[in-house]
Write a structure and sequence with these properties.
The chain contains ten helices and ten strands. It has one domain: Alpha-Beta Barrel (TIM Barrel), CATH 3.20.20.100. α5 links the parallel β7 and β8. The longest helix has 21 residues. It has an eight-stranded parallel β-barrel, surrounded by six helices. The protein has a two-stranded antiparallel ribbon with strand order 1-2. By secondary structure, it is of the alpha/beta class. The two termini are 37 Å apart. α1 packs parallel to α9 and α3 crosses α4.
């Protein structure tokens, strides 16, 4: 129940995945390396066996912290990382992979992903066919085991599928951010592509700790997240108040409810970040929480209207 195959591969991933954007420190505040390492180790000790990072997270710092934390259990875990959009030409991708291997202190990467489509953030528009040709070379060399994409639209995913086998997509997805249900996930289910949901707790909003008027510290990326803006934020807080009694009746935290909702979806895993070991333990509790189909449907109906005020763009940041 707590594991699923990654796409068409025989790689087993945990339905709760530890995300390590925070471990990179950049665009986050109050992060300590010692806490990140302890959080990663605690996640593994509590049956989270899959870990996601990216070369963009702190310019490789997150990868280095992850590699350090998991070195002694490398053959027992699944490590996923992502190539930056400026490194998607054939030569640059191969070099980026080599650098990630060094950062992670490993001989292979279980899942290598395109972090953002080519052209994002002013990067050069490299044909996805060229990028996937490089992925194929890396796979044949045994340096990567599976290929995934992140932040791709349905159209972009279809183009990639015409070139190569894609085993996962990584989009933002939560009770409060459900854009992918419209057209991306139906294609994923049809093609047996695993959905790795990032921000399943809406960057902490679905923990219930944020109040009206909250101000983020300078440098915190959440300050530009659409969910924390004006009327959208206020409406989200209203929905959270309606979700709290549901979590309370189940005897679980609101964050556990949010992760379990994502985990309940077909062929889907939830990527949850953690600043410290206590947050890792709390995230791992969702592995043992299974929501009934009736409750999932109830939450779906209660929150569906909210998606109408978050706009058409699936990108969470302004």
């Amino acid at each position: 129940m707590n594991f699923l195959n990654l796409g068409s591969t025989d790689i087993k991933i945990s339905k709760i995945i530890m995300g390590t954007w925070q471990a990179g420190k950049q665009m986050w505040t109050g992060i300590e390396d010692s806490d990140s390492i302890e959080a990663i180790k605690t996640a593994y000790e509590n049956n989270i066996t899959t870990f996601d990072t990216a070369e963009m997270y702190g310019k490789g710092h997150s990868e280095r912290i992850l590699g350090q934390a998991l070195k002694s259990v490398r053959n027992k875990v699944v490590i996923a990382t992502k190539a930056a959009p400026q490194n998607l030409s054939k030569d640059k991708l191969i070099s980026a992979c080599e650098k990630s291997l060094k950062n992670l202190d490993t001989d292979y990467i279980d899942l290598y992903q395109i972090h953002w489509p080519a052209g994002s953030f002013g990067s050069k528009k490299i044909p996805v066919s060229e990028t996937l040709e490089a992925m194929d070379k890396l796979k044949k060399q045994g340096k990567i085991r599976a290929v995934g994409v992140s932040n791709f639209s349905r159209e972009q995913l279809e183009e990639a599928l015409n070139c190569y086998q894609i085993d996962s997509v990584q989009p933002p997805y939560s009770i409060l951010w459900r854009h992918i249900e419209k057209d991306l996930t139906p294609l994923c289910f049809e093609k047996n592509i695993t959905v790795l949901s990032y921000s399943p707790m809406a960057q902490g909003l679905l923990t219930g700790r944020f109040k009206k008027g909250h101000k983020f510290e300078k440098g915190d990326n959440r300050a530009s997240n659409k969910l924390f803006q004006g009327e959208t934020f206020e409406k989200a807080l209203e929905i959270i108040e309606e979700l709290k009694p549901i979590a309370s009746d189940l005897g679980i935290s609101l964050s556990n409810l949010a992760l379990s909702w994502v985990k309940s979806k077909k062929n889907t895993a939830a990527i949850a970040g953690a600043r410290n070991k206590n947050q890792s333990k709390e995230n791992a509790k969702a592995l043992n929480t299974n929501l009934s189909a009736e409750l999932v449907e109830f939450i779906d109906k209660k929150t569906l209207e909210f998606t109408n005020i978050t706009g058409e763009s699936p990108v969470m940041w302004g």
